[in-house]
């Protein structure tokens, strides 16, 4: 009798454990199904059924979800994503490429210096010499342009003081030392002119005087000027000895043009020995001659590049190096 009671108790315990396991299995299965299948209100259908939500309660929960989505800072999130994208582009953009190329060049130069290769050392010295010459030419052009505009400023002061109209001794003007920046003792206007003339003798090719043979008047040559127009002759492959020859090439093209073809009426010549600046992607060299056509010629640049422009275009010099002319019939 005791043995039968013990067996019954074991059977009952086994049944209870099985029922508990089945219930746990159903609960786990319900959780898995509810996580994979969601209704349009964002609440799992099985979970809603288990929790016993009514239709009104489900509607309120759906409205709460919609309100929460509306108050999310979407603009801020989009802006953060844009900033992350910009930072990724900057890290892999042209600036990073240039820095990597510069580091590679520095490493190669160090390798050349560490070896005893005489040919490589000579090539390195020649490359350094050319870079120094290019830097000196750029500095020379900048200093000459500053001298030229300082002369114009002082002449305008003399005009305001009435010296050019009275033909008397020029009034005294303060002169600053360009090397130290200190104000020197007051000198007369004549002494100022002599000093500036001595400094400007080196810069005659940059103060409006066109190098080469004299340009005919009918060419209407303008120094430090760049006119726009449609290219009739590509200047990258068309070089002339002087601005006068470039103008003559424009005349020749206009005369030889067939009916219906564009006729040259604008010529642009690169007079700078170290090349001419242009905001395009090409490298413009000395003696380039561009033949253009324009019904109403418009100026690209004249005189000098403004400070604001040079801040955004770091390769731009102070003075416009081009010489241009518009041929008028």
Automatic annotation (TrEMBL):
Keywords of this entry: Membrane, Transmembrane, Transmembrane helix
Database matches in Pfam families: PAN_4 (PF14295)
Coiled coil regions, renumbered to chain: none
Name of protein: Apple domain-containing protein
Domain of life: Eukaryota
Phylogenetic classification of the source organism: Eukaryota, Viridiplantae, Streptophyta, Embryophyta, Tracheophyta
Domain called Apple: residue spans: 225-292
Organism annotation: Selaginella moellendorffii
Positions of transmembrane segments: 12-33
InterPro entries: Pan_app (IPR003609)
Keyword RNA-binding in record: no
């Amino acid at each position: 009798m005791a043995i039968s009671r013990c067996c019954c108790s074991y059977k009952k315990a086994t049944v209870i454990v099985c029922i508990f396991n089945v219930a746990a299995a159903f609960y786990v299965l319900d959780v898995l199904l509810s996580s994979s299948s969601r209704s349009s209100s964002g609440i799992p259908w099985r979970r809603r059924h288990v929790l016993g939500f009514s239709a009104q309660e489900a509607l309120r929960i759906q409205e709460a979800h919609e309100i929460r989505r509306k108050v999310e800072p979407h603009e801020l999130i989009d802006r953060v994503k844009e900033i992350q994208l910009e930072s990724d582009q900057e890290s892999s953009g042209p600036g990073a490429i240039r820095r990597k190329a510069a580091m590679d060049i520095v490493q190669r130069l160090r390798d050349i210096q560490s070896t005893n290769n005489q040919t490589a050392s000579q090539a390195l010295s020649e490359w350094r010499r050319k870079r120094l010459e290019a830097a000196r030419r750029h500095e020379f052009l900048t200093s000459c342009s500053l001298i030229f505009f300082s002369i114009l400023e002082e002449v305008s002061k003399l005009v305001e003081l009435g010296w050019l109209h009275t033909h008397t001794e020029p009034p005294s003007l303060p002169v600053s030392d360009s090397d130290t920046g200190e104000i020197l003792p007051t000198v007369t206007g004549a002494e100022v002119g002599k000093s500036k003339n001595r400094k400007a003798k080196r810069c005659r090719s940059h103060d409006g005087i066109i190098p080469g043979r004299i340009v005919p008047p009918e060419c209407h040559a303008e120094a430090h000027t760049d006119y726009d127009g449609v290219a009739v002759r590509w200047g990258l492959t068309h070089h002339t000895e002087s601005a006068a020859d470039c103008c003559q090439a424009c005349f020749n093209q206009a005369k030889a043009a067939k009916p219906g073809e564009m006729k040259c009426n604008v010529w642009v010549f690169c007079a700078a020995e170290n090349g001419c600046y242009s905001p395009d992607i090409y490298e413009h060299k000395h003696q380039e001659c561009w033949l253009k056509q324009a019904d109403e010629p418009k100026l690209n640049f004249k005189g000098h590049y403004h400070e604001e422009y040079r801040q955004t275009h770091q390769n731009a010099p102070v003075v416009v190096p081009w010489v241009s002319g518009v041929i008028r019939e």
